[in-house]
Write a structure and sequence with these properties.
38% helix; TIM Barrel; 8-stranded parallel β-sheet; 15% strand; 274 residues; alpha/beta; two-stranded antiparallel ribbon; 10 strands
């Protein structure tokens, strides 16, 4: 039972990662992202997810230096973008991200997409960073089972996380089962599908029963599937609401009803076609 925003998932290497974090995709660098992180930390969040592609790492760094929480209590994730993949260029990308963030180490560094012909060399760079102690955990985003099979066929250290598009319209059961079998934690991006399913009758009826918002029901569904989740918002009220998930629990029947909304419908790109 997940009882608190302070609850964590233990990754395969023993590192503990918060079950809930703040995503900052499309949060504008500067005051907007600084304010969002400030609201989140005040609401109890300790995990912040950014990426080189988001162009807001400097603002994230500014925010984490000014919040009233020690660096070691925060869990900071960033990602290498597609045009910087490859061994040497990934090492350079990491160093650029680290400097923009103004941190000595990262908690999690991810490959953003499985760029064909590049992701194995990129992964070797992540292994190097991990062995040098510059990153506490390493992982991937948007990898399907065949990508993971290919990567793990000759990697030295297996991925600790796979961050994927996951929401009631795209339940990705095959990926979840694969990752569970291989002790790879799963993390959801775009968990709220940009609000497109907030009016879905199944969601609204469950929300009404629990006196919660549709967003809170969906995020709780994520957590009860054992999926780490990083809802994105820059709005103080929504950031607080998205953290208010720990005083109710969905029943087995409610979980199943939400699962059945699956249409294998992607909102973002297909990793095989990206």
């Amino acid at each position: 039972m997940i009882r608190s925003i302070n609850d964590t998932v233990q990754l395969a290497n023993g590192v503990k990662m918060p079950v809930l974090g703040l995503g900052v995709y499309k949060a504008e660098d500067g005051q907007e992202v600084i304010n969002a992180i400030s609201y989140a930390v005040q609401a109890g969040y300790r995990s912040i997810d950014t990426a080189a592609f988001y162009k807001n790492e400097e603002g994230v760094g500014e925010a984490i230096r000014h919040v009233d929480v020690p660096r070691e209590e925060l869990f900071i994730t960033t990602k290498v973008w597609n045009d910087q993949q490859g061994y040497e260029s990934t090492l350079l990308s990491f160093e650029e991200s680290r400097q923009r963030l103004g941190v000595d180490y990262l908690d999690l560094f991810l490959i953003h997409w499985p760029v064909s012909g590049k992701y194995k060399d990129t992964w070797r760079a992540l292994e190097t960073l991990y062995k040098e102690g510059k990153v506490k955990a390493i992982g991937v985003c948007n990898f399907k089972p065949h990508h993971l099979d290919d990567l793990m066929a000759d990697c030295e250290i297996k991925p600790m996380i796979n961050q994927i598009e996951f929401h009631p319209r795209l339940t990705q059961k095959e990926v979840l089962a694969y990752c569970k079998k291989h002790e790879i934690a799963v993390e959801a991006w775009r968990p709220l599908l940009k609000g497109e399913i907030f009016s879905e009758p199944v969601i609204t009826s469950i929300a009404k029963k629990h006196q919660k918002t549709p967003a809170q029901v969906i995020l709780r569904w994520d957590l009860q599937h054992g999926v780490i989740t990083i809802p994105k918002s820059v709005n103080e009220t929504r950031i607080q609401e998205n953290a208010n998930l720990f005083d109710f629990e969905l029943t087995h029947e409610e979980m199943k009803a939400i699962d059945e909304l699956n249409e294998n419908k992607r909102n973002g790109p297909d990793p095989d076609e990206f």
